[in-house]
Automatic annotation (TrEMBL), chain A:
Keywords: 4Fe-4S, Electron transport, Iron, Iron-sulfur, Metal-binding, Repeat, Transport
Organism: Dyadobacter jiangsuensis
Name of the protein in its database record: L-lactate dehydrogenase complex protein LldF
4Fe-4S ferredoxin-type domain: residues covered: 297-326
Record-level GO BP terms: lactate metabolic process
PANTHER family listed in its UniProt record: LACTATE UTILIZATION PROTEIN B
SUPFAM superfamilies: alpha-helical ferredoxin, NagB/RpiA/CoA transferase-like
Superkingdom, natural source: Bacteria
Stored InterPro entries: 4Fe4S_Fe-S-bd, 4Fe4S_Fe_S_CS, FTHF_cligase-like_sf, Helical_ferredxn, LUD_dom, LutB/LldF, NagB/RpiA_transferase-like
An example Gene Ontology molecular-function term: 4 iron, 4 sulfur cluster binding
UniProtKB/TrEMBL annotation, chain B:
LUD domain sequence ranges: 94-191
Protein name as it appears in the record: L-lactate dehydrogenase complex protein LldG
UniProt-listed InterPro entries: FTHF_cligase-like_sf, LUD_dom, NagB/RpiA_transferase-like
Classification via SUPFAM superfamilies: NagB/RpiA/CoA transferase-like
Length: 458, 195
């Protein structure tokens, strides 16, 4: 991520230049959101499940240390080696160290947003390790040298023609071929060869169970299992908030996860790893990387309840119309915008402003994170600590002057309406950010106040 | 101080005030007919459910469906003569040519069509993933309504276990559903009567 990072608003502007494309992106994600709605409504206990999940995660946050210690102890008893990493750099070094110890220079990886957050692939590649992402969507964006644009649907920003061209170049598929069935088959053959020849596999972790020392990895493609069960060494990387107290709690979370993510009642594979298979080494890397700091932020700690379903992205009117890459963070969308400022306030000060605060994210969140409230609170923290860009600050100042003086407010409103009627070009121009990709509304003849004053007399 | 102790110390310092676990974390589904629901959910994920009266009928159905396939593997003793691929290999990579695996599994979950399979039933963990086609055999009476019941039944996993719901799939190319991503391309579930 050493490239110059564009702010969310600027990146969105670029994204919005192609209107049919933006409409397609918007509709595709909304369709996923609708599948989530349909699926969740099949369960009369849906709201109670969300409540239970949120409550369990609240318990987790208040007992994190004990749960992690219990998990570590059980995992060790199960023959799994446990590592702890304070930050991204330490995580990456641990993984590299394990590979070097086994003289391995090629590894398959299934989806892990944590390794994206740590920029692990770049680090390993610099150290001579080839990493192949095996989730189809992730392999697609990897071949394009891009990060995923969505945590569940990594290539959701691409059209099948883009993928057809990409596969023609890299996998030798027919020129111009765009049939998803054909392209997927080509990827299956290409990746099967990798699964069969790589001695190390890295996976993410969806849930780690303190009571048993086991962890669950969910996929639809089967790539985590193909990698892990064929490799000599399986490395599983987890942010420490993935811990849950008991195995029975998986019942709550697995019922919510896929329904919230894609509308499926469960992912095809929910794999429960507890002990390495005979002759195999299994490692777990538990990562902090800012999470313990977020835990101490009273207003923002609930963000650590996240189970990475992506529902908040699919529903977000801003995400749908600006695309995941505009967020310049491993986790995009509303949840990413409350996680990112904790990691780096300077770099991510724009993200909490990439929201209309409509609250749709909080409404669909399976663990009931108050996402839109946190976005609002981050804005205040960022402004107070001087991270808000000057242009925004001037606007906010002018706004507070106007709103603090009723007479001035009435006069400004009248002036604004007159200007918009008489000289529409004054607002319908490129200098007005509200005019970008939108038409300005027809100005009303009078304000509500004027109308009220006039009509009350009658 | 090690990273481990540092992280734990920081967590202790920053964690919120203690709260208790929620009182209710399991729910009943009470489907009218558990098997019907199981079938319905599996039909949505391209999986056929076939009831067989006994092992003879299972063998007969297996022959009907997969008789012409080469590299048939199974964990069901009654089908071992029919299988032409031995699972008695030391390296799981050798399973790469398996075309159909007919595997005993423990139970099914009606709300999502998932089947639980584990080390207890498999000589190689990779078998249900590496095989081109997969069939599970579970006792007809081994169905639970939902995941809460599933975890009551599943007191502990041995070394490894997995809920598998249908064939492998992906929709990563423009959200078009494609069956057969990395794992099995097709799935059949035999419900075996008796026992």
């Amino acid at each position: 991520m050493s490239k110059t990072v564009m702010e969310h608003a600027d990146a969105s502007e670029v994204f919005n230049r192609d209107e049919p494309y933006v409409n397609w992106h918007d509709e595709t994600l909304w369709f996923v959101r609708q599948k989530r709605d349909k699926s969740s409504k099949q369960l009369p206990e849906w709201e109670q499940l969300r409540e239970a999940a949120s409550g369990i995660k609240h318990y987790v946050l208040s007992h994190l240390d004990e749960l992690l210690i219990s998990f570590e102890q059980k995992a060790k008893e199960n023959g799994v080696q446990v590592h702890w990493a304070a930050n991204a750099a330490e995580h990456n070094e641990i993984v590299l160290g394990l590979l070097k110890k086994h003289k391995i220079d090629k590894m398959v990886k299934s989806k892990s947003m944590l390794t994206e957050e740590c920029h692990m692939n770049e680090f390993l590649q610099k150290n001579g390790i080839e990493v192949i992402d095996t989730d189809l969507g992730e392999r697609i964006v990897q071949l394009r040298n891009e990060p995923p644009s969505h945590i569940v649907l990594p290539a959701i920003h691409l059209k099948k023609k883009d993928i057809g061209d990409l596969f023609h170049e890299h996998l030798g598929t027919d020129a111009g071929a765009t049939d998803p069935q054909y392209l997927t088959e080509a990827a299956r053959q290409h990746l099967r060869d990798k699964f069969l020849t790589r001695r190390a596999a890295l996976t993410g972790v969806n849930f780690a169970v303190a009571e048993t020392g086991s962890f669950v990895v969910s996929t639809n493609e089967g790539n985590a299992d193909m990698g892990a069960h064929l490799a000599d060494i399986h490395i599983a990387c987890m942010g420490f908030e993935k811990i849950i107290p008991k195995q029975e709690h998986l019942g709550v979370f697995l019922r919510l996860l896929a329904r919230s993510a894609t509308g499926q009642p469960i992912t095809t594979y929910s794999s429960h790893f507890k002990k390495p298979r005979e002759g195999q080494e299994m490692h777990i890397v538990i990562v902090d990387n800012g999470r313990s700091t977020q835990l101490g932020r009273k207003d923002f700690r609930n963000s650590l309840k996240c189970i990475r379903c992506g529902a908040c992205m699919n529903t977000c009117p801003v995400y749908r119309r600006s695309g995941g890459h505009s967020y310049h963070n491993a986790v995009a969308g509303p949840i990413g915008s409350i996680l990112a400022p904790n990691l780096d306030m300077t770099k991510n000060a724009d993200l909490p402003f990439a929201s209309t605060l409509c609250g749709s994210c909080s409404n669909v969140c399976p663990v009931k994170i108050d996402i839109h409230d946190q976005l609002y609170k981050w804005r205040q923290v960022l402004a107070k600590e001087g991270y808000v860009p000057k242009s925004k600050e001037i606007g906010i100042r002018a706004m507070s002057t106007v709103l603090a003086a009723p007479r001035f407010y009435q006069w400004s409103g009248r002036l604004g309406r007159t200007v918009m009627r008489a000289m529409p070009f004054m607002v319908n121009n490129a200098l007005n950010p509200w005019y970008k990709q939108r038409d300005m509304p027809e100005p009303p003849k009078e304000s509500f106040r004027d109308w009220y004053v006039r009509n009350r007399k009658n | 101080m090690s990273s481990r102790d540092n992280i734990l110390a920081k967590i202790r310092q920053n964690k919120p005030e203690e709260v208790a676990l929620p009182a209710v974390t399991t729910f009943a589904s009470n489907f009218e007919n558990t098997e019907d629901k199981f079938r319905e959910m599996l039909s949505l994920i391209y999986t056929e459910v076939i009831v067989v009266k006994n092992l003879e009928e299972l063998a007969q159905k297996a022959e009907e469906l997969y008789g012409k396939v080469v590299n048939r593997a199974t964990t069901i003793p009654a089908l071992s003569a029919w299988a032409d691929f031995s699972l008695n290999v030391s390296d799981p990579h050798e399973l790469e040519t398996v075309e159909i695996a007919i595997v005993q599994a423990e139970f099914g979950v009606a709300e999502n069509g998932a089947v639980w399979v584990s080390d207890q039933y498999l000589p190689h963990r990779v078998l249900p993933f590496i095989t081109q086609n997969l069939a599970f055999v579970i006792p007809r009476n081994a169905l639970v309504d939902n995941m809460h019941e599933a975890y009551v039944r599943l007191q502990d996993t041995l070394g490894w276990g997995c809920f598998i719901a249908g064939p492998s799939k992906t929709a990563d190319i423009e959200q078009s559903l494609v069956i057969g991503a990395h794992g099995a391309r097709s799935m059949v579930i035999f419900l075996l009567e008796g026992e």
